[in-house]
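Many introductory courses stop at the sequence. We go one step further.
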Amino acid sequence: MKLLTVVILAVFLGACGSFPKNAKLNQFDANAGYRFDKLDTGAKNTDSLFVIVVMSGGGTRAAALSYGVLDALRETTITWQGEQKTLLDEVDIISSVSGGSFTAAYFALHREAIFDGAFEHEFLKHDVQKDLFHQLFVPGNWFKLFGLSYGRSDLAAEYYNTHLFNGATYQDLIDNKQRPFLIVNATDMTLGSQFPFIQDQFDLLCSDLAHLPLARSVASSSAFPGLLTPLTYENYAGKCDFKDYPWVELAQSNRRENADRTIRADQRSPITSHCRRARATMCIW
């Protein structure tokens, strides 16, 4: 009986889930990975007309609105450099957050096949929230959720990966080699700053974005605080010989110079000096 108990306990603990770790980048290479300048314009896109689409959040309604915007761009014909095309042909970048990230990632992966009906059927017109809720009552998922580093958003990411993105990773976008360039945005909770899922950002972590499932970036972008849990990513910084781009040092130097000018100006300004002395939380001009 004791042996059986030990075996059951071992299986139980072994089944506890942990987040899938993002891949380590062994050697930094500014010419590799998912980057805008590594994508071709494609047959209909031209560099002379630069179009950026921004998709906001708001759950399924945001995803539906974003889908409608893409459809409207597809139906809007233009004549550019003597060639008739649609505005959708000229989209170079899609930047998204939260609910809009589902549509953005799906379009970046499938292009105009997004209008074939699968996205509407599997996501827009499907009760995904109900499915996610039912996932909490699957016994196999109980063991995963007992893991200290596995949360509800990890479970959601697995669902999106299976039912919506079919296991696609950023390597699939790299292999497509065509615009639009996808920027799925989330929030770095440790810094309270924007976290875009692009290789330039993952370079700072010494991590390889290519192996990351699209579903996981979308789940990170749509992880509503309180309802869902934050997703965790390993930071391998300092382990891939990363070197800042030359423009970074120029920007930092310029920032330091501007800061010095501001300090000198503050020392001469009775208004700003008063604000500092009073430790005011607001200085209204």
